[in-house]
Structure formats: C-alpha cells, structure tokens
Amino acid sequence: MKLDVLNMEGKKVDSVELPAEIFEAPVYRDLMHQAFVRQMANARLGTHDTKVRGEVAGGGRKPWRQKGTGRARQGSIRAAHWKGGGRIHTPHPRSYVQSMPRKMRLAALRSALTVKAAQESIVVVDELKVAEPKTRLMAGALNALVGSNSALILIPQKDNYQDVIRSTNNLPDAKILLASYLNIRDLLTFEKLVMPLAALESISAHLG
Q1: What is the CATH number of the domain that holds 9?
Q2: For the chain, which terminus, N or C, has the lower number of CB atoms within 10 Å?
Q3: Rounded to two decimals, what is the model's pTM?
Q4: Element (H, E) at 187
Q5: 137 is a domain residue
C-alpha cells in the first residue's frame, strides 16, 4: 500500500510504500478485543478496600448475655448486620493483571494498523517539527494534516522532538507517543494516526 508523504502544511512532497506484513496483515478482531481488555485491566490499581468485622473499631465485648433476655443472641455489635459493623462480600485489594503472549499482542497491533490503513486514517509526514513550542502552531499543523486536532502522534525518540512534545501537551484531543510504545488502546481511541518517516521505520523494526 502506498501513502502520500506530506509536509507540515499538508502538501504532498513524496510517497512511501507501507510494509505489507504490518499494514496489510490479517485482521483478528478477537485478538484486538483481548489485547484492549488486557491493557485496560492492567491499568487498574486494585487498591479498593473495605473493613471486615475484625478491622472496625469497637465491639470488644458481648452486648448482652447469651440466654434469658428474650432477644436474639449476639456476639459483637460490630457484626455485619449492626450499624457501624464490618462488611462482607465487598472489595479488597487484588491484582487485575492479565497475561497475553507477545506474539498475540503484536498480531493485535498489526490488525489495528491494518484497519487504520484500510480506513485511510494514517498520515505520514516527511518531518515533524514546529518553528517554536506553541500550541497554536501544532493545532494548525494537525488541522492541515488530518482536518482536526484529534490524532495520535508517533515520534521515534524524544531528543529531537521537544518542541513538538511541548506544543502537543495542551491539545485535549491529541496525544504524542514514542513509536516503540505503540499500544492497542491508543490506536483504537484516536481516529487519526500521524507519524514522521523516522517513526514508520521504528514501527517496521518493531512489528516487521
């Protein structure tokens, strides 16, 4: 598949052949779903907690004697059915981590990139740069490239892209990401994928 290579003004300056093994791969929707669910689950902290009857304050003695009062027997005023008592069947700290083999994760990424390419949602630029770190400059460039500010922007490394990073940080509908950190959630969240030729080379090395 061939794509036009644009400059920051949105004008065609060249064309590039996308690697078929990445951008024309078989689409496995079940793998994409599994990878997305895994990533969302792994992002959960699992720090929710409630107190059981052994952790709440009070209730050290039996509220009344076992027999002879005419009332139901009770052992503690901090049992679950008492006001201020402990809780049962409620959340406690746990791990939500799900595992997924690396080959399956890479196949899911290839599937997502193939879908993006088929939808013509990938924009390749010759060089990603701005004259100065200004949000309005990056917003104008994205508007020329994709027609809106909503895009996932891939960069090969941080060293030469500090101005681009600072210019993108304040855009609510755009995100900048290292190409080596490409993930299924960001691919499916943003409508457009913008990357310079150098980032395309990083993706090819990682997924090829």
Answers
A1: 3.40.1370.10
A2: C
A3: 0.83
A4: helix 184-189
A5: yes
